[in-house]
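agent> fetching stored inputs for the AFP docking request
agent> found them:
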Amino acid sequence: MTYRRITLPLFLVQEQRRLGGSGVFTALMTDICTTCKTISNEVNRGAMAGTMGYAGSRNVQGEEQKELDVLANDIFLYMIEQSGNWAGVASEELDNAYMARGSDGRYLLLFDPLDGSSNIGVNVAVGSIFSILRLPDGVDPSDERGYLQPGVKQVAAGYTIYGSSTMMVLTSGHGVNGFTLDHNIGVFVLTHPNMRVPEDTTEYAINSSRERYWPEPIRRYVRECVAGPDGPRGKRFNTRWIASMVAEVHRILMRGGVFMYPTDSDNAPRGGHLRLLYEANPMAFIIEQAGGLATTGRQRILDIMPERLHQRTSVVLGSKNEVERIGRYYAEADAAEADAADISAA
Ligand code: AFP
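agent> prediction call returned; pasting tokens
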């Protein structure tokens, strides 16, 4: 036998057999897979789809929605309504949690239908991010409280990147696997088994136009990287910023790196920039499962107990040794601040 391709449906069935599942997870993943293939098709058609412009509306976060944001959200919602596998959903593009009509499903889907949407229209990678939670017993799926679970409770998480190829990257807590969409047969094929984030890196990603707002530990980290071979790190670093978290995380999974979107003096009143439940948590789950780390700078992201559906958080994730270093810089800055407070109080 020379044919060796493991398709996503085959992979799911094999995992189900290996881990003794009931088939529910396979059905959930099949729904997401079909949804992302449909979105991929819309994204790939580009200007021909006629969906490159603004929708003329704003989401709950006050951000202007693009037509493709709205369409991708609709594609997810239609799948959820029709399949009957889901209890309820929460989306970046919906104000409130939403109960799937007529379903007896036990799972909640939290998603960002199209992350990085400032890249729509300029042909740069965008993606969909998703997180799956169990509906707690006795909770109504339209009740926001059912969704307010820490990231450690995720049953599975993943993203699909619509880039030069379309790839879905998944974890259910047993490592991370990447699948590339074969457009000829319309199926995702396992191309990146057991993805691992290298522990060291010389690449970092941050929106440096926000430097004037950064907290001191981030300033120090970037300053030391920029100093290159003559600075304290003694080596050259490179910077990348795509403005699409999916694309940044994908690069980090492929070759290492660190991604930072800290809470800073500008976004602090909103709690940061990135959304905890459907951006930071699924990405943190994937990165940890691939051997990396994901923190706020001070705390593991997966341990945060959410208080609101659209809560935001500080994010520092990627190669283990760099994320640990940034954590040390936060701890040292906090200790210095506490010492200074003690001295002035004395
Ligand atoms: P959208 O989901 O609204 O497109 O936001 C993208 C994003 O949340 C994340 O994917 C990027 O890393 C980040 O925002 C980009 O932020 P800047 O616009 O500050 O670069």
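agent> quick read of the result: DSSP finds seven helices and 17 strands in the chain.
agent> awaiting further instructions
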